[in-house]
Amino acid sequence: MMNAAIQTRIAQLQIVKAKVLAALRKGENYELKTELNSEYKERRKEAVRRVIANMTVGKDVSGLFTDVLKNMHTDDLESKKLIYLYLINYAKTQPDLVILAINTFVKDAEDSNPLIRALAIRTMGCLQVQEVLDYLCDPLRKCLSDSNPYVRKTAVLCVAKVYDLNRGIADENGFVEAVRNALGDVNMMVVSNAMSALAEMNSMGGDVWRLEPHIVSRLLTAVNECVEWGQIAILEALIEYEPRDEKEAENICERLLPRLQHANGSVVLTTVRLLLKYERYVKRADLLAQFAKKMVPPLITLLSSEPEIQFVALRNINIILQRRPRLLSKEIRVFFCKYNDPIYVKYEKVEVLVRICSERNSEPLLNELKEYAKEVDVDFVSCAVNAIGRLAIRFEAAAERAIAVLEELVQMKVDYCVQTCVVVLCDILRRYPGRFEAVVTTLCEHADYINAPEARAAYLWALGEYSEHIPSVASLLGAAVDSLLEEEDACVQLALVNACVKYFLKQPQRAQALVLRALQTASEKCANPDVRDRAYIYWRLLSADPSAARTVVLAEKPPVRPENSSLPEPLLEELVNELGCVSSVLQQPARQFVYARAERAGVPRGDAATTADYGTQAAVDTTPGADAAEGEPELLISF
Q: Rounded to an integer, what distance in angstroms lies between the CA atom of residue 473 and that of residue 81?
């Protein structure tokens, strides 16, 4: 009874709470409505600010549409900007009411203040309402030939929005041709915006413009006088241009070199992308060496930026090094990790260090990686130890030093470090068979610290493979057989059975009792069917033909080959052409997660987030809205 009464009371309180919240919401909008219609200018301005603040946090203030429209007739630039922002956000839900604002837009488009003229034409383009187009054409035509460059550069971008909404109107009114003509404007910001607008219209599927040699020369001149965003737009457009001959490619590269000194990382990476593209047409070795020398300092400078920019730079440098492996071979110390680097930057630095390492500088890098392996972050320690193993497998001259470093790390008896070291040491032993057998003794001395399944499997493999060099192998394997059924991982059980059989085939007299016990336990008591099957096969093979068993089990195995961490060539070429973009950070082409490019490339949307064509897996989930909360408000402005 008491519980039922409490639940009833809680339900009543929740109903009261809902009514109070509804009343408060209603009261807030009512208050804003009153303020928007106030006779005092400052109160109306403050009310507009509050409306935009509510809209920004996701509250529905569409009911105030007509009241906000009444405040459009103002000379205050701040209020006008806020009201126009409100109109952009709610234009699609209130298309009929937007028409009421047309007269004010047209009037503002002829205002004496160029900021207001530009604001009006930009807002009309952003409304994306079909009914507004008929009223937009005349103001847009005037703004395209306006005397003020700020208005002109805003108008050319508006043409792209009109083209997206209705291509017929854009062509009939000559807007597209006006944007083409704007490439010859005296103001370079107008030129860069015209370039962006034409590229955007081309990406919509229209063939409205193509780069010609005289236009390229004009753009290369304009890029020196634009702000950074204009430079990026022009450089991005030049990616699509194919030079006519080697001389033109050399000229373009030489005119691009000053952009490498820019402070903006995106300008630098886009310029590097262009140099990598056009150097394919250059045959002179001295020029190629000059271009490479010029690219190094700006890439290194990016590593002194914020950690996020460092990460982007390192991901792009990784791609560049796959195209030009020796580009940064003399700058290895620049990529050494700092104590305050975020972990994601450290991972990328280690990857770059392994890629640019050579036999000449392998020893200082091994010493540096040894210090990383002494840190407290488990994952980073594993990354550093694996990097040591990759260097040893890749460079035979570095193998001995790498073995010494790994033995020193094992002797530190740090549990998580020992596990990775054991696996890496066994890989090195497989890479160089018949060498470094003494390291197995070190593993045996630290067997108590080897407890991870992968590490135990590697350790047992070493015991079986080098049993003739280990005096205490019988006791070590015997203790492992006693705990065979306690092993939870099948790979450890399989490794133990293999090791016992190898030991028997190498020393039959000493290992006969041990191998019988191991095979009997594995075949009769083990729950894993794979382990039982392996034991049956060995039992029958040893019983029927020991020489055949020796041929099978002790057969010479191919050595471990150096890991190929490079991207497939087709994928690498795509990513080189997209340096500085999101795709270079994700290391998957833009056509696989940008729907417009995916549709042009014939990639179905359902497969857009995979890279199966290249034998790799996608690094992130690129499904739109995968992490968005249900009911989350849309962005205020669509760029």
A: 81
List the beta bridge partners of residue 611: 616
One-letter amino acid for residue 44 of the chain: R
Euclidean distance between CA atoms 425 and 421, whole angstroms: 6
Say what percent of the chain tops pLDDT 70: 90
Backbone angles phi and psi of 634, in degrees to 5: -75, 165
Q: And the tokens for 266?
A: 């995106």
- For 534, phi then psi, to 5°, come to -60, -40
Q: What is the CA radius of gyration of the chain?
A: 35
Length of the chain: 639
Query: Using CA atoms, how far apart are residues 11 and 59, in angstroms rounded to an integer?
Result: 26
547: tokens are 């020489």
Average confidence (pLDDT) over 497-513: 88
Over the stretch 273-307, which tens digit does the pLDDT of each residue have? Answer: 999 988 888 888 888 889 889 999 999 999 988 99
Task: Specify the 3-state DSSP secondary structure of 636.
Answer: coil
**Rounded to an integer, what distance in angstroms lies between the CA atom of residue 95 and that of residue 435?**
79
Query: Cα separation of 328 and 202, whole Å?
Result: 37
pTM listed for this prediction: 0.79
Beta bridge partners of 631: none
The pLDDT of residue 631 is 38
Q: What is the pLDDT of residue 26?
A: 57
Per the prediction, the chain carries an average pLDDT of: 83
Phi-psi region of 129 (alpha: psi -120 to 50; beta: other; left: phi over 0): beta
Which DSSP letter does residue 611 get? B
Give the whole-angstrom CA distance, residue 365 versus residue 280: 32
CB count in 10 Å sphere of residue 288: 15
Q: What is the distance between the alpha carbons of residues 330 and 342, in angstroms, rounded to a whole number?
A: 24
